[in-house]
Specification:
There is one protein chain. The N and C termini lie far apart (87 Å). The radius of gyration is 29 Å and the shape is elongated. The protein has helices at 2-26, 35-60. By secondary structure, the chain is mainly alpha-helical.
Length: 65
């Protein structure tokens, strides 16, 4: 009886390992973004930061430039 349980456990572990290998094989490799998209993201981030800075400056001046 112990051999049956051991064998079932081994088969279960083997099936689980095979499923994990199949899932690993299905994953697509990482493809980095193009330089144009990264540059555009940096430009937009800088524009947002400039806008926030100008907004706080406008609030600090009481709404008058």
């Amino acid at each position: 009886m112990d051999n049956v349980n051991s064998r079932e456990e081994l088969e279960h572990a083997a099936m689980k390992a095979a499923e994990e290998q199949a899932q690993e094989a299905e994953k697509e490799p990482y493809v980095p973004r193009s330089k144009g998209i990264v540059s555009l993201a940096w430009v937009l981030l800088i524009l947002v930061l400039i806008g926030v800075a100008l907004y706080y400056f406008w609030i600090a001046k009481g709404g008058k430039l």
